[in-house]
Task: structure prediction
Amino acid sequence: MKFISTRDPDKKTLSYTDTLLAGLAPDRGLYVPLEYPQVSLDELQSLQGTTYQEIAFQIKKKIIGGDIPDGVLRELINKAYTQEKFPEWIDGNITPVREIEKNLYIQNLSLWPTAAFKDMAMQQLGQEMNHELQKRGESLTILWATSGDTGSAAEAAMKGLENIVLFMLSPQIGMSAFQRAQMWSLSGDNIFNISIEGRFDDCQDMVKDIKNSAEFAKLWAVNSINWGRISSQVPYYFSGYLQVVDEIGEQVDFCVPSGNFWNVLSGYIAKQMWLPIRRLIIATNENNVLETLFKTWKYTATPADITSSPSMDISKASNYERLAYDLLGRDGEKLAKYMEEFESSWTVDLTDYWVSPQDLQGLGFISGSSTHSDRLDMIHYVEQKEAGIIDPHTADSVKVATDLRDKNIKTICLETALSVKFEDTIEEALWKTPIRPQRFEGLEQRGWDDTFMLLWTQREDLCTFMRNNS
Ligand SMILES: *Cc1c(COP(=O)(O)O)cnc(C)c1O
Result:
């Protein structure tokens, strides 16, 4: 299996492990597979009833195409997904599905160490990167800015990895007590939490600024665009599918609460790999850039408002470029023009690029959005159905699925966080506080060591600190 940049007309290829350590392509494109591997119905059949780890192994093996030896890959997956990290797992199933009503399901992707689906990919990505660095005799210093969830997911994934040091900047303003405590609890070893006076934007500016200096030019932002992360999300669509179907080959719909288009892109890849997905339903909140895109084919950046499903508050969808590449016939030159038009005017219309609306409909995407009061209603509704207390992002998904679903086929809504992280909204909806899984009990009260939460405004101090600790 070979990989190419979305903006390279010559389609120069890289191996999987090269993309793993590469981030953005030099032409500012994103790496995608030269072609999508395929899974046969027989292979799907043979995965039924196996563990998540086995599904992840078989699917990633196809995507990686031999670049990591099978035995090693298995080992990395077993290290990423252990019983210890997933105390609530049941029979090796770490993405369990439950039914809310006939043909409507919720697949829980939040049993992960930080109770967010972003862990799923990060755990595996961390293992793969560490392995490749060891093999190459290299090490990696990561400087990252977080506004909340991605931070602890990254820390949980990188903690204790021998060849990686992580410096995490977070804003003093705008993080919840829970998020802060969660990050604090992960400090130590190779993880350094640094609190920055100001907001998330200030943290991001600091990262950009430091990376522009010659000394730290090679600092890595292992972020959403990493192909290893996207590909590690593909297996859970297979796992969800296998859990609900009566017969292999039956078509299902997935409904995905979406922001930056990472998660649902992985669903699209699963579909390209021939997993029988009929439609991918994209659910947004009030910040409905993606809803508009899939209804009008106009991609327009819009300032994001703060909502009660904050991980979906985006003004543009950084991963959409990978889908756009396929939509534009995998023509790197055309894609580069399309993205440049977007980057200069913050809006671009796909139909100006000779893509017909019929082609687009054939892809199976549909979209809808939800509001704060919809979320409250859905949290209430699902609880009444005795299907548990869902978080506000999952509520977006259930709302849009309820509006758009076809009752004759099965629809799986993805549950991307646990309600415990959004107690305020749950209290507003249900007049009670969700019960915390044991591992989060009293998190905010646990003592933390001040030396791991540093407060700096000066870039120079931070540089010295990184120099001394890498
Ligand atoms: C990140 C996130 C999303 C949005 O996922 P994308 O991959 O950015 O589309 C939805 N829900 C939760 C809880 C998240 O953390």
About this structure: Residues 116, 118, 149, 257-264, 311-312, 393, 416-417 surround pyridoxal-5'-phosphate (CB under 6 Å). The chain has two domains: 97-112+233-430, 118-231+436-470. The chain has a mean pLDDT of 90. The two ends are 34 Å apart (CA to CA).
